[in-house]
């Protein structure tokens, strides 16, 4: 399946960045402009980076790599779990324990404890204990399952990590760097792209945007694994006739393993067809930004409509759970749609740290459908 079209990205609100006060200057190359103090991410560059990440992840999956999906913020929890389960990979969606990668031996002992508690429930041992002890062990089991349930069958360190919200998951990023584990991540305008190996610039707060990105990574993994299984079958047939050596099989944790053979280069797929030319042409008008004010040479090098004073703005490190909303069609080419959208995001800046983030994303889900129905 090809990567999402420009229209899909627009519908999901992937283009909305953070408030201009909370930006990282290193993200300037991915910023199209700003409207009402909210940065607009250049979807052309998002699309290009998404294609690159999709192809890379697909190739890694083809070669049997093991993936860990990470996203512990409210807006990302369900999407991360669904994406990981869709491609039979692993996930952390409640809390990242310090040392989850760098102290894997200790984490494995806690996974063993979780398995032990599950076994006690299954064989009836738990029912024979006093009520107070049952309650204590039940609470321990629930806590361990929330934190480690998504990696209980991983049986080793992941080969690749996919992350939503680099600022919130900075400990995971630090541990991955220490172990030289490659990182694929959705990077918002308040994050440092240098921390990520495969950057996908986009909104990391809106539920629909997060779900779209997680789904794309899951599709890439499934596609790579499907092609690997096809190769496995072809090798098996060829081996019977004595044409090739080596074998391929599914190992522990769903890992595709090559025995007696090196990694194989997967055939590339054609790029997505039928992109949304109208959206591409009317992007500046739809965002209410004067197209003439965009320096084409600067944008070609990664720049956007960002003033020098903005570039001097200090980077604020606090995380932000802001989301966006809009109530008119982007196809009209007027400024009103983007006004409504960025006003909603600006207002929600005050909600940073609020645990009701899922409701914020829900507003986007309801209103964007109406906003893009005519695109």
TrEMBL record:
Q: What InterPro entries does the record tag this protein with?
A: Ribosomal_uS2, Ribosomal_uS2_bac/mit/plastid, Ribosomal_uS2_CS, Ribosomal_uS2_flav_dom_sf
Extract the ranges annotated as region (Disordered).
Answer: 296-375
Pfam families referenced in this protein's UniProt entry, alphabetically: Ribosomal_S2
Identify a single GO molecular function assigned to this protein: structural constituent of ribosome
Q: Which GO terms describe its cellular component?
A: cytosolic small ribosomal subunit
GO biological process terms held by the UniProt record? translation
Where are stretches of biased composition, namely Polar residues?
Answer: 296-312, 320-331
**Domain of life, per the record?**
Bacteria
List, alphabetically, the Gene3D superfamilies matched: Glucose-6-phosphate isomerase like protein, domain 1, Helix hairpin bin
* Matches recorded under PROSITE patterns: RIBOSOMAL_S2_1
Enumerate the UniProt keywords alphabetically: Ribonucleoprotein, Ribosomal protein
Q: Which NCBIfam families match?
A: rpsB_bact (TIGR01011)
Family, according to the entry, reads as follows: Belongs to the universal ribosomal protein uS2 family.
Q: What is the protein named? A: Small ribosomal subunit protein uS2
User: What are the top taxonomic ranks of the organism?
Assistant: Bacteria, Pseudomonadati, Abditibacteriota, Abditibacteriia, Abditibacteriales
């Amino acid at each position: 399946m090809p990567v999402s079209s420009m229209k899909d990205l627009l519908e999901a609100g992937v283009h909305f960045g953070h408030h201009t006060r909370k930006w990282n200057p290193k993200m300037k190359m991915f910023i199209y402009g700003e409207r009402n103090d909210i940065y607009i991410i250049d979807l052309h560059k998002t699309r290009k980076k998404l294609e690159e990440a999709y192809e890379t992840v697909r190739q890694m999956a083809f070669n049997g790599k093991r993936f860990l999906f990470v996203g512990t913020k409210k807006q990302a929890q369900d999407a991360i779990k669904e994406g990981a389960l869709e491609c039979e990979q692993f996930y952390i969606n409640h809390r990242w324990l310090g040392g989850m990668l760098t102290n894997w031996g200790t984490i494995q002992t806690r996974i063993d404890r979780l398995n032990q508690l599950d076994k006690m429930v299954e064989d009836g041992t738990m029912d024979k204990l006093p009520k107070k002890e049952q309650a204590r062990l039940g609470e321990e089991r629930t806590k361990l399952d929330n934190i480690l349930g998504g990696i209980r069958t991983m049986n080793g360190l992941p080969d690749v990590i996919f992350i939503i919200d680099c600022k919130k998951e900075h400990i995971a990023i630090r541990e991955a760097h220490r172990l030289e584990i490659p990182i694929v991540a959705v990077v918002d305008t308040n994050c440092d792209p240098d921390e990520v190996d495969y950057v996908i610039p986009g909104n990391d707060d809106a539920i629909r945007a997060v779900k779209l990105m997680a789904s794309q990574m899951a599709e890439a993994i499934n596609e790579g694994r499907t092609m690997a299984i096809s190769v496995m079958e072809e090798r098996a047939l060829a081996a019977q006739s004595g044409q090739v050596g080596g074998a391929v099989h599914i190992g522990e944790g769903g890992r595709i393993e090559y025995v007696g053979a090196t990694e194989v280069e997967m055939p590339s797929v054609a790029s997505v067809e039928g992109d949304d030319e109208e959206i591409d042409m009317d992007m500046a008008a739809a965002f209410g930004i004067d197209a003439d004010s965009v320096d084409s040479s600067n944008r070609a090098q990664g720049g956007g409509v960002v003033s020098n004073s903005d570039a001097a703005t200090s980077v604020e490190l606090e995380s932000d759970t802001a989301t966006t909303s809009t109530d008119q069609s982007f196809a009209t080419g007027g400024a009103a749609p983007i006004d409504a959208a960025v006003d909603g995001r600006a207002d929600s800046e005050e909600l940073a740290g609020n645990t009701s983030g899922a409701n914020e994303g829900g507003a986007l889900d309801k209103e964007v459908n109406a906003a893009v129905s005519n695109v």
